[in-house]
UniProtKB/TrEMBL annotation:
GO cellular component entries: exocyst; membrane
Keywords, sorted A to Z: Coiled coil
Highest taxon in the source lineage: Eukaryota
InterPro entries per record: EXOC6/Sec15, EXOC6/Sec15_C, EXOC6PINT-1/Sec15/Tip20_C_dom2
A GO BP annotation: intracellular protein transport
Matches recorded under Pfam families: Sec15_C (PF04091)
Species annotation: Heterosigma akashiwo (Chromophytic alga)
Gene3D superfamilies: Dsl1p vesicle tethering complex, Tip20p subunit, domain D (1.20.58.670)
Domain Exocyst complex subunit EXOC6/Sec15 C-terminal: 2-170
Protein name: Exocyst complex subunit EXOC6/Sec15 C-terminal domain-containing protein
Length: 209
């Protein structure tokens, strides 16, 4: 009986942590992923998430090491799913620019850096697919690398081409003013032509994605 109660308590801990974290991530709705302005700092919702995880993880000393690490993996996995889900959802994020993708990359990178400092082996890997998507969207060679299956497998092993199709379908290039502003700036965002993006989408769909 005690064992069953203990297991139930641990399951409840997992559920509460994930539920609260997912609620904090809902603050992402205030982030404009169609922005023309390159990001300069981590979004407030992500700062709240990291602060919550810092406090929460420090309060897990009553759990066994296995259960503590389980909570870590569950939390980061839920965070990745929620962040990726928002980015892919055409209603939540109907448009996406290179600057918007860079903001998601900055936020995901901050969470990844936090994961690196948690002392749990392989924890950051839970964010791998999301970070890979963000890196790919900032790669000036994206259109060429994605089209070729062999090169895609080497360059973006964690990128799901079907998800990339969804992102590219709502991708918008930088406006002229944004292009001028970023010249000589600290961030060089890729500037893809719409016709090239459409050709890539067509090629990926022909490949079954």
């Amino acid at each position: 009986v005690f064992g069953r109660l203990s297991a139930a308590a641990h399951a409840a801990t997992f559920e509460l942590v994930v539920e609260k974290l997912t609620d904090l991530i809902s603050g992402i709705s205030f982030v404009k992923f169609d922005t023309q302005t390159p990001p300069t700092e981590v979004s407030p919702y992500m700062e709240d998430c990291i602060q919550y995880l810092q406090v929460t993880f420090m309060c897990l000393t009553h759990l066994s090491r296995e259960d503590r690490e389980g909570v870590h993996y569950a939390a980061l996995g839920a965070a990745r799913a929620a962040l990726e889900g928002h980015l892919l959802d055409p209603r939540a994020a109907p448009r996406l620019t290179a600057a918007g993708a860079a903001q998601m990359g900055l936020d995901a990178g901050a969470l990844g850096a936090f994961a690196d400092g948690c002392g749990v082996r392989g924890l950051r890997e839970a964010l791998g697919p999301l970070e890979a998507l963000c890196r790919a969207l900032r790669d000036p060679d994206l259109l060429v690398a994605l089209a070729d299956p062999a090169r895609r497998a080497r360059t973006y092993p964690q990128v799901d081409p079907s998800k990339m199709v969804l992102l590219l379908e709502k991708y918008e290039g930088l406006g002229m003013l944004a292009k001028i502003k970023q010249q000589g700036g600290r961030q060089d965002l890729p500037q893809f032509e719409k016709k090239d993006i459409q050709n890539l989408i067509k090629e990926l769909k022909n490949q079954g994605f």
